[in-house]
Amino acid sequence: MNDKPSPRITSDTASFWARCNEGVLSFQRCTGCGQAQFYPGTICRSCQCDTLEWEDAAGHGELHSFTIVHRAPTPAFRGDVPYIVALVDMAEGFRMMANVVEAGPDEMRIGLPVRVVFEQRGADGQQIPQVTPRR
Amino acid sequence: MTSNPVISGAFDTAVGKLEGSSCLGLHAQAALGAVTDAGLELADVDGLLCAYSMAESYPMLSSVVAEYLGLKPGFEAAVSVGGATAAVLVMQAAALVRAGTCRHVLVVTGDNRLTGMSRDGAVAALAGFGHPQFEQIYGMTIPAAYALVARRFMHERGLTCEQLAAVAVTTRKHASRHPNAQMRELITIEDVLASRPIAEPLRLLDCCLISDGAAAVVVSAGETARDLPNPTVEILGCGQGHTHEHIVVAPSLTEFGCHASAAQAFGAAGLSPRDVDVAEIYDSFTITLIVELESMGFFEPGEAGAAAAAGALDLGGRLPCNTHGGLLSYGHSGAAGGMFHAVEAVRQLRGTADDRQVENARTAFVHGDGGVLSAHCSIVLGRS
After folding, report:
1. How far is the C-alpha of B246 from the C-alpha of B129, rounded, in Å?
2. Tens digits of per-residue pLDDT, B370-382?
3. Containing H/E element for A53?
4. Using CA atoms, how far apart are residues A84 and A107, in angstroms rounded to an integer?
5. pTM of this prediction?
6. What pLDDT, in 10s, does the model give residues B120-170?
7. Is residue A97 within 8 angstroms of chain B, CB to CB?
8. Which of B245, B206, B18 is nearest to B111 (CA)?
9. What share of chain B is helix, strand, coil (3-state, %, to 5)?
């Protein structure tokens, strides 16, 4: 357990976070234009229609970019420095942010294959998606 | 006589660590300074545009500033688009005078971000630009978000850490010529590369300052210019471009809304990047400036870094850029950070920039970037 923040869940995102607690990363896909969407919302950012459906992701992706953070934003993250923040392109065609966990800065490179793992946060034990190198 | 709106007055307060300063006191100082510089009195101002404050947060800052100044404007609004705000406010003021809604719009920005909230407090508050559910939970900071851009930009366009460092070195050289700049001591490429890492590949000297300070301009209807005592600066064209707020949603990490905003501003002015004598472009990080310079057409893709390293951004270079020292070395106090760029452009076009004057500067370019290269506003200015 740690005091790093738990997401402030809204009605837009409740089913996403509930699915995380079941160990599954989900995303929305627009039934109108077929675009995968992340983070979730009520309308499609590509075609503005409101017929988005939830899909489960396989949890595989690769690093689009990454940074090694030495200056934490708040005391909760200070014990983790240096830690890795990455943008991850998932196989289903959406991009998400995550920490690359159980990995060293020297392993990091753009294109590195990763898989999703979950990390428990906060008093309510919310699971949040993270990634780790696919070895 | 021009029909274009003009900037009739410009003023900035001291910047840096201003013990005893307040957000509203800084606003008042900048407001009165700009109005006086325009040869006007506060009672002549019929429009008021403000930004936001982090040190003293008010839900209705323009009403609070009007109240503090004893001003009862016919039009007021507060705008919040991060670092793009100052340029957006100037664009909005120009639209108000062009429409005949106002004759003289006071545009004032400021914050006591250093003494009012501490460096730790500012870093934590700025991280609030990240998405609360999908970015902040990963300990993303604003430097980290720009570092993600930097890493990708290096990968795609061959940019190097040394080239980024050259931006910081040149910007500091500019600041050394400005008596009011917060950081004036010259630095070397080696100094930048040896400074402590913040979010790799960005190091401390790749990052902007945190400052107290304020700046204001008065935007006036073109037909009023002949009655004003000081030279006015013509607003030749403005433009905006927006692609996202959160970096996780940015459609690209190499091309941003600055491409559209600059194209629109140059189109309205009937000019191109080649016509610009001096550029004052938002430089929250060294990477910010490199991305913008390439995206806005001042340099070809992959060439801005090498150009910076070869001195292109210095006085006498191909594009003297951030001649006051920018956010990297002059100062950065919230929305006023972007307004310092506008004030410097006015000084350059009036020929009053002293040791840092670009010889015979006739056309200037001002650009603001808010969020993580999210919201962009460009302005082309000309000597009246």
Report:
1. 8
2. 999 999 999 999 9
3. strand A52-56
4. 11
5. 0.97
6. 888 888 888 899 999 999 999 999 999 999 999 999 999 999 999 999 999
7. yes
8. B18
9. 40, 20, 40
Q: Which residues of B296-324 are buried (b: 16+ CB within 10 A; e: fewer)?
A: bbbbeeebbbebbbeebbbbeeebbbbbb
DSSP state letter for B136: G
- Looking at residue A82, what DSSP letter applies? S
For residue B1, name the pLDDT band (cuts at 50, 70, 90). Answer: very low
Q: What is the ipTM of this complex?
A: 0.97
Is the distance from CB of A133 to CB of A107 less than 8 angstroms? yes
Whether the CB of A5 is below 8 Å from some CB of chain B: the reply is: yes
- Please tell me the distance from the alpha carbon of residue B326 to that of residue B369, in angstroms, as a whole number: 13
Interchain proximity A73–B133, CB inside 8 Å: no
> What's the angle, vertex CA B84, arms to CA B79 and CA B90, rounded to 5?
65
Compute how many other C-beta atoms are within 10 angstroms of the C-beta atom of residue A92. 17
Q: Chain A residues with CB inside 8 Å of B247's CB?
A: 87, 97
CA distance B162 to chain A (A): 17
Residue A66 contacts B where some CB pair is shorter than 8 Å: yes
Amino acid at B338: G
E-strand stretches of chain B = 6-12, 47-50, 75-78, 104-112, 197-200, 202-203, 212-220, 233-242, 278-281, 363-370, 375-383
CA distance B330 to B216: 16
Q: Tell me which chain B residues have a C-beta less than 8 angstroms from the C-beta of A73.
A: 123-124, 126-127, 136, 139-141
